[in-house]
Amino acid sequence: QVPLAEAGGGLVQARGSLRLSCVGSGRAYSRETMAWFRQRPGTARELVAAVSWSGYSTNYADFVKGRFTSSRDSAKSAVYLQMNNLKFEDTAVYFCAARGPLYTGSADASSLYEDWGQGTQVTVSS
């Protein structure tokens, strides 16, 4: 059973908005950091945003600061990603992850997270 389920991907025009959601199933993540990663064609999976279990602390990649916002509903083991002012280069498969650190330093962030969803495609047309 896949522990996390993403929803909300789709096709959007540049400068448009999308909201992704992710809910844990079969496991509670109310006390775990949850995060969003993305993988663009031909590139490694990269961290987009991480949110502490309380929702009070966040860590965003530089390339989304000021455009994306991530929030939590820990009671539902859910995490959300509001994406505004989307760019063509934001086109990627977006993955939800849990059970990892809020800050990953220079490490391969994706290797530090234990649970993953199957991903949802976001396509931004220019």
List keywords for this structure.
126 residues, mainly beta, seven-stranded mixed β-sheet, four-stranded antiparallel β-sheet
Overall description:
The chain is 0% helix and 45% strand. Strand 4 and strand 5 (46-51) form a beta hairpin. It is built from no helices and eleven strands. The protein is mostly beta strands and 126 residues long.
**From the helix content, strand content and strand pairing, which structural class follows?**
mainly beta
- Kindly state the mean pLDDT as a whole number? 94
Count of alpha/pi helices: 0
Number of strands: 11
What portion of residues belong to β-strands?
Answer: over 45%
Distance between the termini: 36 Å
Shape: globular
Task: Give the fraction of residues assigned to helices.
Answer: under 10%
Characterize the largest beta sheet: strand count, sense, and whether it forms a barrel.
7 strands, mixed
Weakly predicted, low-confidence segments: none
Radius of gyration: 13 Å
Order of helices and strands: EEEEEEEEEEE
